[in-house]
């Protein structure tokens, strides 16, 4: 009988998430596509990993002390992870978030006891960008540290030491490619670096949404965005501290429509309720799988990240009126509920 692990601390529940073969994507790609189920973390997203490492790193360096506060600017999921970890360790949390993110994320942060500050979405160069506002708040708050997830490389270290190692062990070292989108860049850089330590031949691919600049950067050496995306938490216009030195071998650009197509299929065909970033990641994994098959790799295996639960987007991705307002296709079953 398989022994189910017993953990001594709740924070040990972060990481060691399941890996699952995705039947529809595998059939489409002509090879095995696997999803790392990061929605199984306590905060229901991949960002729990970065939150834990960032806070533990600040403690180790003596910057975060008893009774302290963690301040961060985030699209939501990192804030949720930070709030949970901070609660478990006795710290306060202040989260600054763009006001165009899902209401479910905002409600969750408030429910977790975090102080939530919302600001209008703006470009990174604007001093009122949510990252800059959060940094200033940290500087002005006694006993506070700024998590700084975009440039704090404790973020990618979480994936070098955790996610990459888990994927390698779960696939028994039989992995040909890995891909995901970049927000902070911590996941793609960290998993890429970690897997390359095991096998240099693992292909690391960026899957970029429209509107982000990294696709053009890795394809043509120029940070240039084209189009737009409604995906939350992914898409980047600069080389963050976590992205510096990231071993990106190839890149794909995926539209919201294609990502939503996979969100719909994974829910209806495989019972997985996911967010748009996961759908975009799966679309990229299918493209990478096809590429590896075309290159002659025998029975290649590709892994991607299933970032968070779709229950965090009931007012957006799973709302017919919202989808129509963004000129996006409405899922068939939502049309029936109008």
UniProtKB/TrEMBL annotation:
UniProt cross-references to InterPro entries, sorted A to Z: Cys_Synth/Cystath_Beta-Synth, P-phosphate_BS, TrpB-like_PALP, TrpB-like_PALP_sf
One term of GO molecular function: cysteine synthase activity
EC numbers, comma separated: 2.5.1.47
Cofactors demanded by this protein: pyridoxal 5'-phosphate
Enzyme class: transferase
Record keywords, A-Z: Pyridoxal phosphate, Transferase
The UniProt record lists the keyword Metal-binding: no
Family annotation (CDD domains): CBS_like
One Pfam family this sequence matches: PALP
Top-level taxonomic group: Bacteria
Chain ranges of the Tryptophan synthase beta chain-like PALP domain: 12-308
Protein's recorded name: Cysteine synthase A
Species assigned in the record: Qipengyuania gelatinilytica
């Amino acid at each position: 009988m398989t022994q189910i692990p017993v953990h001594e601390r709740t924070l040990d529940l972060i990481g060691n998430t399941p890996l699952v073969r995705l039947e529809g994507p595998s059939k489409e790609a002509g090879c095995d596509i696997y999803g790392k189920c990061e929605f199984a973390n306590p905060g229901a997203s991949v960002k729990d990993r970065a939150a834990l490492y960032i806070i533990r790193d600040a403690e180790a360096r003596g910057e975060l002390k008893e009774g302290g506060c963690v301040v961060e600017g985030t699209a939501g999921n990192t804030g949720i992870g930070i709030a949970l970890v901070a609660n478990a360790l006795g710290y306060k949390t202040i989260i600054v978030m763009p006001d165009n993110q899902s209401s479910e994320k905002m409600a969750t942060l408030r429910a977790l006891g975090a102080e939530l500050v919302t600001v209008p979405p703006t470009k990174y160069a604007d001093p009122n960008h949510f990252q800059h506002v959060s940094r200033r708040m940290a500087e002005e708050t006694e006993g506070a540290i700024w998590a700084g997830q975009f440039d704090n490389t404790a973020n990618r270290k979480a994936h070098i030491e955790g996610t990459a190692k888990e994927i390698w062990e779960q696939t028994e070292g039989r992995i040909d490619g890995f891909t995901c989108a970049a927000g902070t860049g911590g996941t793609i850089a960290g998993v890429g670096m970690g897997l390359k330590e095991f096998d240099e031949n693992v292909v690391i691919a960026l899957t970029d949404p429209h509107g982000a600049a990294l696709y053009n950067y890795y394809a043509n050496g120029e940070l240039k965005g084209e189009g737009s995306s409604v995906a939350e938490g992914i898409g980047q216009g600069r080389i963050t501290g976590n992205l510096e030195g990231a071993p990106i071998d190839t890149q794909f650009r995926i539209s919201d429509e294609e990502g939503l197509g996979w969100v719909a299929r994974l829910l209806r065909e495989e019972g997985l309720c996911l967010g748009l970033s996961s759908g975009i990641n799966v679309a990229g994994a299918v493209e990478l799988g096809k590429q590896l098959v075309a290159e002659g790799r025998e029975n290649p295996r590709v892994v991607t990240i299933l970032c968070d639960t779709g229950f965090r987007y009931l007012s957006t991705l799973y709302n017919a009126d919202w989808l129509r307002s963004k000129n996006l296709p409405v899922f068939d079953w939502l049309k029936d509920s109008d």
